[in-house]
Amino acid sequence: MMSNLTELTVAAIRKGVADGDFTAVEVAEAFNGNVAAADALNAFIVATPEKAIAAAEAVDAKRAKGESLGKMGGVPIGMKDLFATDGVQTTAASHMLEGFVPQYESTVSQKLWDAGAGMLGKLNLDQFAMGSSNETSYFGNVISPWRRNDANGVPGNAALAPGGSSGGSSSAIAARLCPAATGTDTGGSIRQPAAFTGITGIKPTYGRCSRWGVVAFASSLDQAGPMARDVTDCAIMLEAMAGFDPKDSTSLDMPVPAWEAGLNPDMKGKKVGIPREYRMDGMDDEIAKSWDDGIAWLKDAGAQVVDISLPHTKYALPAYYIIAPAEASSNLARYDGVRYGLRDLPEGAGLQDMYAATRADGFGAEVKRRIMIGTYVLSAGFYDAYYNQAQRVRALIARDFEQAFEQCDVILAPTCPSAAFALGDKTSDPLSMYLNDVFAVPASLAGLPAMSVPAGLNSEGLPLGLQIIGRAFDEQGVLNAGLAIEQRAGFTAKPEKWW
Amino acid sequence: MSVDKATVAKIASLARIRMTDAEVEAMVPELNQILGWVEQLGEVDCAGIEPMTAVIPNTLRLRDDVVDADPLTGGGVREKVLANAPAAEHGFFGVPKVIE
Amino acid sequence: MSNYTIQGATGEWEVVIGLEVHAQVTSNAKLFSGAATAFGAEPNTQVSLVDAAMPGMLPVPNRECIRQAVRTGMAIDAQINKWSRFDRKNYFYADLPQGYQISQLYHPLVGEGHLDISLDDKNPDAVKRIGVERIHVEQDAGKLMHDQHPTMSYVDLNRSGVALMEIVSKPDMRSPAEAGAYVRKLRAILRYVGSCDGNMEEGSMRADVNVSVRKPGGELGTRTETKNVNSVRFVMQVIEYEANRQVDVIENGGAVNQETRLFDPDTGTTRTMRSKEDAHDYRYFPDPDLLPLELDDAFLDACRASLPELPDAKRLRYENELGMTAYNAGQLTMDVDVYKRFEDILAATAIKLDKPEKAVATQVANWVLSVAPGVKNAVPDVDEANDTTGANAGILALLASDTVSGGQAKEIYEIVLKTGREPEEIAETEGLKQNSDTGAIEAVVDEVLANNAEKVAEYRGGKDKLFGFFVGQTMKAMKGQGNPAVVNEILKAKLG
Ligand SMILES: [Mg+2]
Ligand SMILES: [Zn+2]
């Protein structure tokens, strides 16, 4: 029993602790052990075993007193290092924030601790959440626990990307270093890594989870969400993370639905839209096939499948690559070496020289590239042609979805155009890296809830994900369709331990 | 619209990112590739379409005029504010001397 | 309205002036955080994590700041925009923690309005209308201190995030005097409305002064902007200096640079601001952390209902309803503290005398504007606590009822200021009351005339100047308590 604790889901851990089958401390110790033994994955920037134990002890003490243990009672999780954690280094995977110890706790992480979760550590990510492969972290690449099989089905040893930016989260969950983790999704950063690693992740409606205390990348897009092994765990954890926060003026002032209790895989009477524009020229056969599988599973669950059109799909990615860098160029202006973080003060440098030196030294190449793009598109004379035009196109993309949702309840599409690629494959060509988020970005631009669930393995033994996009505020519809797929996909594969 | 070395250098200076000549040079084609690609947005007919202002229909909430109502957004936390400062003296942040 | 020109070697030059006034909004907490705004706190003690732009911090606007800016807009008859937005103005400076200032460029809260200025105290109805382009709401920056350390500047973020209204005039002013009058009038309105305390010494109000010169009626010249000028006198000095400097530059074959300048109060001159030397590209764009600000009718109605009577309306009412001179009405309504003192004392005096306010308004106005300040200035170490509405009304009631003379009133006021004693009691115990009893005065006058028969003869012979002698003798005999009006009247009658 004890040796299997790290194989348990959030729901099972919570139940086991509540029922007294094992203690929260035993669970924390088991995961701490896995974390300590997985340096090769580089999923964590800092491990905080003592935090996990302390939270577990508190849960065990509550249980002894007969108190309620909370939605996440006794569940240790990983915290993406984009969430400020009081007294624990928070870096956004950047040299800029190396050694930065916040004196405050992000709203989302606080809610999780209040719900009885404990922290195993701070998870690696793409620097400032900019990337799709976890190769931009100052603290090194995260490695996927998955290995690609050769033609004979023999696992190779090429290091694969865990996806990004929440690649530490996806890698750690797939490798059983934690049962669940927080992610953030700006243009696919929860869904794409989930798909790459055979796990489940949901980006809720923009505004569901407070952005307060989350290092900002692109404010109008950033949304936190849970990553876990299955749909039920995502529902449980999202309930703990979501909720109105008066400190975030874009936070939705609505009650948090009982998503876990509302889970229902019966799709009778539901219409599933299949966006024809997502079936792009040269689409990977195996991706196309998994999409067809998804359609069949949802039909089997009772859904009616309808063809829909999202005509502006092809413009989503270019619009995103104006809006997100523009916002980022401004959001990242605060990293200037004055109040916290890195300061690079060359001999005899003045204030402005200090800024330029600090930012040159502190930011990685991809961060600089995006700051440069963002600065350019906002600079004098270009604002309207680039930024405003992108925001107009964004309005059209949102309108496409609105019109589509007059004909269907949820939309089914692949999460990514391919399975996980090898580290280094796309680093020399930023554009090819950006194209990896082509299916994920439209829902981000429209602020809609969207999740990725595992659909199966491809011929190389790598996981593929299916994406479900729902109406604003309809996380329940998304989770339910995800559950219908999950039950039929029967995805039980896990990476063979090599680390 | 394509950028040249001088433009890239100017943008780097606006963004306060020190760049060597070689770095500027290397960034020219990179930016041009990305900018050339995003410019396909120009094809989209946006007549009569207002730029998006709110992703999800929502109105701006306003806060009551109360001091320190929430310690997380209130003052009186100088130690927390200065805790991570590269240079802090006598309750101030220190920066290289500025001539106005 | 003023014929101000610069006389250059090539002829006359006209000066064109626009002002951007930054007024600190009166609020308890900052524009986007809950930190306090009080002046003079220890460095960085009124700074929240939000104001210090810690990673992940977010702005939430303070309703009171919006309300005050709307009320200010209403007070200058401006267009109030029910839909506005906050934009980010991006630039790097040590007093700007976020690397951008949250301001409003594209859709300000308040649009066009105007206010009327007068340059003639005697004729406040002769006005010039100065257009206001807009009022937007924005964050103040922190403060840099340069003289505390040999190689470092110190940063204090206490002001960082305090709400400002930027009130942008049209380039409608043509002289230092007009600019001075504009700032004073604007300050009066802000103080009436209660949206800014107008305290220029503490930096609650400061002006960016835009100046250019041109040949009368010619094309607009290149302007300079002199930043953060913090008194009316300095604003006028900047204009005077800049106008002459620019004329010199042009007449010597040069061109005026469009630039940001700094005023040095010690020398009365301006100079290029080094930290702003490079032309800025502020990359304004809508703040993605904030949704559009939408105001409903109920909010606007409440703002309008809460507006007080404003300076111009009050001045006209004083003239029309209280029968006051234009000069007095203008002087009394120029500042909140002055009119409030006047209205309080007027009301209390009228009640004491059981008379309509109009009957004593002029006497109270003269008291408040000239008599009382004159006495106060002459008394060292006035205890302000003694200068109550009740005490002033008490003295004015004694004066208006002829119980005391003007001179006695001043003496009583002096004692009041020093001791806080009751005016009626002072008049009684100090013998500071005048005698208006005609019988008694007649008796004294008869005696004085009898004792000075020669002089009476001289007077009657044409030496009119002696009248004052008889008044003096009578008052002396009455120990100064005779009512001068009655004394005069009786003397005139008796001397024929
Ligand atoms: Mg200005
Ligand atoms: Zn301003």
From TrEMBL, chain B:
It catalyses: L-glutamyl-tRNA(Gln) + L-glutamine + ATP + H2O = L-glutaminyl-tRNA(Gln) + L-glutamate + ADP + phosphate + H(+); L-aspartyl-tRNA(Asn) + L-glutamine + ATP + H2O = L-asparaginyl-tRNA(Asn) + L-glutamate + ADP + phosphate + 2 H(+). Its EC number is 6.3.5.-. GO terms for biological process: glutaminyl-tRNAGln biosynthesis via transamidation; regulation of translational fidelity; translation. Pfam families: GatC. One of its GO terms (molecular function) is asparaginyl-tRNA synthase (glutamine-hydrolyzing) activity. It comes from the Bacteria. Keywords: ATP-binding, Ligase, Nucleotide-binding, Protein biosynthesis, Transferase. Allows the formation of correctly charged Asn-tRNA(Asn) or Gln-tRNA(Gln) through the transamidation of misacylated Asp-tRNA(Asn) or Glu-tRNA(Gln) in organisms which lack either or both of asparaginyl-tRNA or glutaminyl-tRNA synthetases. The reaction takes place in the presence of glutamine and ATP through an activated phospho-Asp-tRNA(Asn) or phospho-Glu-tRNA(Gln). Heterotrimer of A, B and C subunits. This is Aspartyl/glutamyl-tRNA(Asn/Gln) amidotransferase subunit C. The lineage of its organism: Bacteria, Pseudomonadati, Pseudomonadota, Alphaproteobacteria, Sphingomonadales. The gene is gatC.
TrEMBL record, chain C:
The keyword Ligase applies. Belongs to the GatB/GatE family. GatB subfamily. It comes from Croceicoccus ponticola. The gene is gatB. Its EC number is 6.3.5.-. The keyword Chloroplast does not apply. Keywords: ATP-binding, Ligase, Nucleotide-binding, Protein biosynthesis, Transferase. GO terms for biological process: glutaminyl-tRNAGln biosynthesis via transamidation; translation. The lineage of its organism: Bacteria, Pseudomonadati, Pseudomonadota, Alphaproteobacteria, Sphingomonadales. InterPro entries: Asn/Gln-tRNA_amidoTrfase_suB/E (IPR017959), Asn/Gln-tRNA_Trfase_suB/E_cat (IPR006075), Asn/Gln_amidotransferase (IPR018027), Asn/Gln_tRNA_amidoTrase-B-like (IPR003789), GatB (IPR004413), GatB_C_1 (IPR042114), GatB_Yqey_C_2 (IPR023168), Gln-tRNA_amidoTrfase_suB_CS (IPR017958). HAMAP family: GatB. NCBIfam families: gatB, PRK05477.1-2, PRK05477.1-4, PRK05477.1-5. It catalyses: L-glutamyl-tRNA(Gln) + L-glutamine + ATP + H2O = L-glutaminyl-tRNA(Gln) + L-glutamate + ADP + phosphate + H(+); L-aspartyl-tRNA(Asn) + L-glutamine + ATP + H2O = L-asparaginyl-tRNA(Asn) + L-glutamate + ADP + phosphate + 2 H(+). It comes from the Bacteria. One of its GO terms (molecular function) is transferase activity. This is Aspartyl/glutamyl-tRNA(Asn/Gln) amidotransferase subunit B. Allows the formation of correctly charged Asn-tRNA(Asn) or Gln-tRNA(Gln) through the transamidation of misacylated Asp-tRNA(Asn) or Glu-tRNA(Gln) in organisms which lack either or both of asparaginyl-tRNA or glutaminyl-tRNA synthetases. The reaction takes place in the presence of glutamine and ATP through an activated phospho-Asp-tRNA(Asn) or phospho-Glu-tRNA(Gln). Gene3D superfamilies: 1.10.10.410, GatB domain, N-terminal subdomain. Heterotrimer of A, B and C subunits.
